[in-house]
Specification:
With about 280 residues, the chain is mainly alpha-helical. It is built from 11 helices and 2 strands; from the N terminus they run αααβαααβααααα. It has a two-stranded parallel sheet with strand order 1-2. It is flat, with a radius of gyration of 32 Å.
């Protein structure tokens, strides 16, 4: 009696497809794990750590406290700068290029020193004021948004200082040189110290404020209000706006000063577009 033959099915394409299909769920499982991890990471970044519910009155009390601290810092800064105001005044007189500054009214220099101390004290206290603003908005920010606070805080401070330096060494001397040259051979250059500082101080601070444009645009890009493509598409309007800002923010009417300020606005705008492209916005 012979044993029955056991036949093995031939390996054909269907068996191969079956083997391939048996491995596919492993790939899908890996993709699902990866998607789950990305979703968990996104949820973590969108969390608000140490979130505390506050009523409207608690928010107003918090705001009042932050404003109070900021005002104390400003007052301390003004008093401190007033105690050493003479070297500050002498430093700000350097761009006058040797023009004689006169006190033509009683107490004019005294009120000028108060004005100089006010601007200087505000500048000195500005980092602490900005810190109070950050502390007020921090509880409502997610982990993702908090990652941008450090670079924005540092960038804003650096750009403000760079704006002051640019105004002191470029914008103010150019404006004063224009006026000195325009009246050369016709009038003797003797300026009121009050009018000189009312020209120099607003010009320096308006220039420093225009250097905050990149921070504003980058924030709008981070919150997806604007994109780099959108900013590039409106470059003509930006150039026109820069010209208008140069005319409005500069206390002088000379074209050189307005061109310097307007040109810096365009350069800062283009720099903002580059940064937004680099961060994928």
């Amino acid at each position: 009696m012979t044993e029955p033959e056991i036949s093995t099915p031939p390996e054909d394409s269907n068996n191969k497809n079956l083997a391939v299909n048996l491995k596919e769920p492993e790939i899908n499982n890996e993709e699902q794990v990866s998607d789950r991890e990305n979703s968990q990471n996104k949820d973590y970044l969108d969390q608000i750590p140490d979130e505390v519910e506050m009523s409207i009155f608690d928010h107003l009390e918090e705001l009042r406290m932050r404003i109070f601290y900021a005002l104390i810092a400003v007052v301390i800064g003004i008093i401190g700068c007033f105690l050493v105001v003479k070297p500050i005044v002498q430093f700000l007189e350097i761009p006058a290029q040797g023009v004689k500054l006169l006190q033509i009214a009683p107490g004019e220099y005294f009120f000028v020193t108060i004005e100089v101390a006010g601007y200087s004290g505000l500048l000195l206290a500005s980092p602490f004021v900005l810190y109070q603003v950050v502390k007020f908005v921090l509880p409502g920010l997610t982990i993702r948004e908090r990652r941008f606070l450090g670079p924005i805080f540092l960038g804003s401070t650096v750009l403000f200082i760079v704006g002051l330096i640019f105004a002191y060494f470029a914008v103010v001397p150019a404006a004063l040189k224009f006026f000195i040259g325009y009246g050369s051979g016709v009038v003797e250059q003797q300026w009121s110290i009050k009018d000189y500082f009312r020209f120099v101080l607003p010009l320096m601070f308006s220039t420093a404020l225009t250097f905050q444009i990149p921070i504003l645009l980058i924030l709008l890009g981070i919150f997806r209000i604007f994109s780099s493509q959108k900013l590039i598409s409106v470059w003509r309007e930006v150039v026109l706006t820069a010209v208008c800002l140069g005319a409005v923010l500069t206390p002088s009417t000379d074209p050189l000063t307005q061109s310097l300020l307007g040109g810096s606005v365009v350069v800062l705008y283009l720099g903002s577009v580059v940064v937004l492209k680099l961060i994928g916005r």
